[in-house]
What we know:
The structure holds two protein chains of two kinds.
Chain A: H1 2-19, H2 26-50, E1 59-65, E2 68-73, H3 79-95, H4 105-123, H5 127-136, H6 138-148, H7 153-186, H8 193-197, H9 203-220, H10 230-236, H11 239-264, H12 269-293, H13 297-317, H14 321-350, H15 358-361, H16 363-376, H17 383-404, H18 410-438, H19 454-472, H20 475-486, H21 497-514
Antiparallel strand pairs in A: 1-2
Helix pairs in contact in A: 1-2, 1-4, 2-3, 2-4, 3-4, 3-11, 3-14, 3-19, 4-5, 4-6, 5-7, 6-7, 7-9, 7-10, 9-11, 10-11, 10-13, 11-13, 11-14, 12-13, 12-18, 13-14, 13-17, 13-18, 14-16, 14-17, 14-19, 14-20, 16-18, 16-19, 17-18, 17-19, 20-21
Chain B: H1 2-8, H2 10-27, H3 34-56, E1 60-63, E2 67-69, H4 71-90, H5 97-115, H6 119-138, H7 144-175, H8 180-187, H9 192-208, H10 217-224, H11 227-249, H12 256-278, H13 283-300, H14 309-336, H15 354-357, H16 359-373, H17 379-393, H18 397-421
Antiparallel strand pairs in B: 1-2
Helix pairs in contact in B: 2-3, 2-5, 3-4, 4-5, 4-11, 4-14, 5-6, 5-11, 6-7, 6-11, 7-9, 7-10, 10-11, 10-13, 11-13, 11-14, 12-13, 12-18, 14-16, 14-17, 16-18
Amino acid sequence: MGFPLLGALLLIAVGAAVVVPLLRPASLARAVTLVAMLAMLGLALRIFAAFDGSVDAPAVAFEWAPIAVLRFGVDGYNLYLLLLTTLLFPVVLLAIWRTPHATSRLHLGLLLALQAGLLGTFAAQNLLLFFVFWEAVLIPMLLLILVYGGSERRRAALTFFLVTMAGSVLLLAAVILLGALHWHETGAWSFDYDALAALHLAPATQWFVFGAVALACAIKSPLVPFHAWLPLTYREASTAGTALMAGVLSKMGAYGFIRLAVPFAPDVAPLAAPWMMLLAAVSIVYGAIAALRQTRPGDVVAYSSLSHMGFIVLGIFAFQATALQGALLQMLSHGVVAAGLFLLLGLLEQRRDDGGTLALRAPRLAVATMLLVLASLALPLTSGFTAEFLILLGAFSEGWAAWLQQDGVVRLAAALLATTAVVLGAAYMLRYARTLLYDAPPSGADPRIADLGGREALAIAPLLAVVLALGVWPAPWIAKTAQVTAQISSYSVVPSAVSAAHGEAVRTVRSPHGN
Amino acid sequence: MATDLFYGLLPDHLVLALMLALMLLESLRVPPAWGRIVYLALLGGAGAALAHQIANGYVADIAGGEVIIDRFALSAKAVLVTLGFTAGIALPRAMSYKTWLLLASSLFGALIMMDSAGFVALFLGIEMLSLPAFALMVHQRGASVAAEGAFKYLLMSSIATALLLFGMSLAYMSTGSLAIADFVAIVGSGRGLDTAATLLMLAGFFMKAAVFPLHGWAPDAYSAAPLPVTAFLASVVKGAVVLALVRVFAAATLDATVVTVVTALALASIVYGNLAALAQTRFRRLLAYSSVAHAGYMIFALAGATGSRADDLLWYVGIYAAATLLACASYAVLARDKGNGDDARDELDTLDGGFARHPLAAVLLALAVLSLAGLPPLPGFFAKLFIFQSAIASGHLVPAVLAFAGSFIGLGYYVAIVVRLFRSDTMVQPMQQPQ
């Protein structure tokens, strides 16, 4: 099922990015962009529906050069992300439809190029290809911030670009090193994921690869203390830029952890896992506390984003099927929620309004905001709860098992620390909602503003639908990725009866849905 | 044999014919507009001849161990002729026959170097390449800075020549032959004499290619020359020198000392070139320092021992030189309507808001500099990738990481150019953020 659909998806992404900037007038370019994005969403939905959870999904492969067989594929790891990427772009475009940005052909071209880069990063099954797309994403993002950002856009664009690139220096070295080791072992260059994962690497090499990947991903996600670029960039980027950065770009980092750091350093990653969990927990708590201290709504969402990204990393490095499942769901959930919150702020900005008593002045906008806020603070029956609960459950059971076996207390401590952030999360998100929805607006605000219009409602509705669907009935979503998450137990260094039995239970419970 | 002499050297003959035709046209006082047409036509012919030879897999030993046509010679000549052709299209000004003639003779020297299998032909080629370049720099320029830059180039180039000759004579002392192949066999012997010959020859090449710390002439020479000449120096001339280096050292086994020296110089070149370029405010000086950094990447290829040096550097030279030519041509377009394309004044601020004025030129310039910066998916990334692949596969992981860090510094000024191009408030009014 993979070939025609995924191939078509990538072709549309690249083709549209090339063609759209050449179209005149700009309104035609905008319409074509939307059609292309919807077509990609349709294809991604087909791929999602057809995906049967098998680990060895077929892939698109073509030989570009003797050293590089380019392979794209859909597997449990990137399934949600492909859906998330193709969903957010048309949503963002619809939300900014009437702004000058939406009729700038440069802006449309950059959006499409960004989407092509993201889809390539997620779908690549070849490390070099992954790296190329991973970096290629930076160019459109740089220009999106630089041309369409706020008053300090130049500084923001350069900070974002240079800090992110700094992480790539070691990543590139690790990529080439893996290829070179494959060359030494087999006599042929290959960067294919499967080929590289089959290599037998010395521990020192694995440490280097793990460190390089972890650094690049920690900057991209970001994790504390690598988040220095985040506040400025999220504040200065345009609405579309911020929504996409928080929604999708940040997921590249999380995806890199699970796709590269774990498989290519299989012996080292479990050893580093407790400390990565601790780092994630620190990130979660730091982000939450920082969010509590912010006064601008945009900054609250930016720091909450830092906190929620920490949950994903925590889930991945718990090395436990349930937690990993939660992490994959959290990528989707946080992508939808963060992008939605930023877009709603952007809609307020379009109305030149600073919020306050929106519940009275714009009830539909207020309801949408509130639902996303509730998902963000992980209220049961929203996507945030499903994801974070699974992560914390898995992390805690793994930490508990490790502690019982006197295998260190770091994991347990990290899980407990992360749990406190749920309370903090409720505090800052409810305060955010109160400021926007119920507090008196700043004096001079227009008492009547336009409520969510039809087009805007159409843009936001899919996001709310995903939030509720994931929260109310997560089983069909989980069934798609159950097989791939179950694999993670094979890496774990805690051969605990608890986690093994748990992983087994998860597998048996879910397999009826899966097949 | 006679057919080899004709067919094998056909591309070189065509460039020679080009030189004669240009001289003839000038003495017959034909309007100068024909210069470009004749230049492109005959270079196109040379390119076609090369394509035919490559398609046939043509190989010949033409003049007993001095001139040889092999796969590398054909590919390298194809790269150089393509670059010369591109330069012919991209050069902006209406140029005199003398300029075309000097370009053609420099290119002729470059082609001879690629054919050489012995040091005599190689040496002739190098001199043939460099001497017209001095003339190009001062031709039609009254400014004393031009003379100063050209003189500095001439002086440093003569020292480089002396170093090369010294190295060649030591090699002759050791092997009793002037064939490059005999020299290659003794490069890795570890004897003092052979190592000295290797190092002297490398020093000569490094000086011509402006590798730190032998780069002193490049910034002055590049900024003194007219922009088209700078473009030619930084692309074709520099590329030819590096390919000549490959011609000699492609298959040589370098001993550990030499590899250490080369790696250290490569790193120093990358870091110094990029740091110095960060501080520049003028386009041609920036180009000069960036070319010092690129010389560093190129000689880094010598550290690789996987037998792919020739291929790696063919890619690198082709892509680097093409990007440089593209950058210079687009810069000239962007600078033209501010009236300072060719003047001594070539401040970078002429690029400010370039996208609003010339979208196509601005996008091309942005792509060219990002390619030079080595950002995927642009070709410059793959050029660097091939070199670092070989280096890392040969066990030079730490120098490679340091080189990446050095190239990260380079991002600073390349991206600054992009920032300037897209810096305009006239394009789209930025949205006001709520305070």
